[in-house]
Amino acid sequence: MNDRVPIKTTKTTFELLETLVKEGNASLPELASHLEKPTSTVHDHLISLRKLGYVVKEGKTYRVSTRLLDMGESARRRMDIFPPAKQEVDELATQTGEHASLAIEENGQTVLLYISKGADALDLGVSEGFRMAMATNAPGKAILAHLPENQIDSILDEHGLPEITEKTVTDRAALREQLVEIRERGYATDQGERVEGVRAVSVPIIPEGRVRGALTISGPANRMEGERLEAELPTLLLQSANVVEVQYTLGG
Questions:
Q1: pTM of this prediction?
Q2: Could you tell me where the DSSP H helices lie in 160-232?
């Protein structure tokens, strides 16, 4: 992975914002420690971000402002896949009682674009905008399986195959075999590869021959097994994906 960024101050600014997003609220010394930067440097960046409205100071701690929320929502609304998929995700959550989501590929990562929680849904500790290495999760693999080979290689070269749990696939040959199976059967699964004890099933959204995202249902392993995991949920997801594909095509 190439970490080279031409303008280092820009990299520091975004690392600071990402740290605040992850930590919630943090003091200046805590941020300097996380970033391994001098306190004075971090303070200068915080002053700039406060003046621009991206950071709020509360007592001795700092947090990101809602301006980032507005920017993210604006970006999401402009994605053609979002309007037709949102209703289907909501219906999947209601039908199954589980955690349903829409994910896309962005800069070689899985990004959760929209989440809807059913009555029995687990709190998976993720929110809209959450990013993951693609090979560690069902939607990422569902999308990868339908990308051009050179793009798959590029993504793996940049982001690697990180081991999140002992079940995460970390071997390229093994991943390639999985991707072939996913293309053949039409859906991908996550057998505790990102979170121990959690399983997921995902199908790609492929309007006009190009993969645009993936719909996913996630839940505890004891509710995601046998016929439900291998037939019932994939069928529901495939039906929803087909609706999204048709609406996307008509809308285009």
A1: 0.79
A2: 172-185, 226-227
